[in-house]
Specification:
The complex is a heterodimer. Chain A is of the alpha+beta class. In chain A, 40% of the residues lie in helices and 13% in strands. Chain A has a five-stranded mixed β-sheet, with helices on both faces. By secondary structure, chain B is mainly α. In chain B, 38% of the residues lie in helices and 4% in strands.
């Protein structure tokens, strides 16, 4: 049994230690918001937080996550009210939506570490998340918007 | 009279040799000391240089702020950046994709527990360095991570991340000589005087 914590809930998982974390999240725990894209850490669709870092769950073995804290898109906020989620809604960012949970999880790390990211900061943080629909401009705008929302929230 | 001159000469040379050792202690405890030999030392360094400039080594010692990939040394996909600590930036930290070990399969992320570039304050650039520039850089503690010559040998011969170059995972070419042969050339280079190649050496 491998013990992991996903979105604050403890799970004892009976799985091969080499099983990708993504498989565990989707197929065993049943959280399907995190997507399979390339399986090679090339696209970012499977991004989740492992102890706060935006890891690619398709190449992260469950063994690495044992005893650690994982957050998926389902746990990014309680009421879908993370500043990024609010901004994503307001700016109508997704087109097909497949990559967007990964985009949000990466952007969340950026906003946590940089309260006022520049376009260059956004490029540096987000270039590993690919969008076949090409929503990059809206993603960029929404991250700026989320930073505004976050700062406004901090003032309250 | 001739005997006195010869003996004085021998004593003078012996004292010079001893003084030179005192100026830069070379002891068996650090590394084997051989007679100083600029030709042999430079020859050994040129073997070392070929390894350091091979893709498995140079790709993580780039002249820019992004690591390189492949045998053509192209800039890392996703244009990932060095960051202050050499471990990446924001959501693009090295260990987000690179595990503690190579991920199996062609074109899958290679891995090591220490995966990363040299930090921003000690960039240790290999790319574009001439043999002379790289030799002098490697010998300068201000540019080599504060290492003595003995520590430099130890790093080249034993460091786990350096050793990854000889276990790079599926489909990646190896450096042009084995790790033991490489370590032997490093030792020779330094033991024979740690000479830097001339400016003209390419």
């Amino acid at each position: 049994m491998i013990n992991i914590t996903v979105n604050g809930q403890h799970h004892d998982v009976d799985a091969d230690p080499n099983m990708p974390l993504l498989w565990v999240i989707r197929d065993i725990i049943g959280l399907t918001g995190t997507k399979y894209g390339c399986g090679a850490a090339q696209c970012g669709a499977c991004t989740v937080h492992l102890n706060g870092e935006a890891v690619r769950s398709c190449v992260t073995k469950i063994n690495r996550a044992a005893g650690q804290n994982i957050v998926t898109i389902e746990g990014l906020s309680i009421n879908n009210n993370h500043p990024l989620q609010l901004a994503w809604n307001e700016m109508n960012v997704p087109q097909c939506g497949y990559c967007q949970s990964g985009q949000l999880m990466s952007a969340a790390v950026l906003l946590r570490e940089n309260l006022n990211p520049t376009d260059q900061d956004i490029d540096d943080a987000m270039s590993g998340n690919i969008c076949r629909c090409g929503t990059y401009q809206r993603i960029r705008a929404a991250i700026h918007k989320a930073a505004d929302i976050q700062r406004e929230g901090a003032k309250i | 009279m001739k005997k006195i001159i010869v003996i004085t000469g021998i004593l003078f040379i012996a004292s010079l040799v001893m003084l030179s050792f005192r100026a830069e202690p070379v002891t068996p405890a650090n590394y084997p000391a051989l007679p100083r030999d600029s030709v042999g030392s430079v020859k050994a360094f040129m073997s070392v240089y070929k390894v350091l400039m091979s893709s498995r080594c140079m790709n993580c010692h780039p002249s820019g702020e992004s690591p390189l990939q492949g045998d053509d040394n192209h800039i890392h996909t996703m244009n990932v950046k060095r960051g202050v600590d050499g471990k990446g930036l924001y959501a693009a930290r090295c260990s987000n994709c690179h595990q503690a070990e190579n991920t199996a399969g062609l074109h899958m992320p290679p891995g090591n527990p220490k995966w990363g570039l040299p930090p921003a304050n000690m960039r240790m650039v290999f790319q574009g360095r001439t043999p002379r520039q790289l030799a002098l850089q490697l010998l300068d503690p201000k540019q080599n991570g504060g290492r003595t010559k003995a520590q430099l040998i130890d790093h080249m011969a034993k460091d786990d991340l350096v050793g990854w170059a000889w276990h790079p995972g599926d489909g990646r070419t190896l450096p042009p000589m084995s790790r033991p042969a490489f370590a032997a050339q490093v030792r020779l280079w330094i033991a024979k005087g740690a000479y830097a190649p001339s400016i003209k050496t390419k």
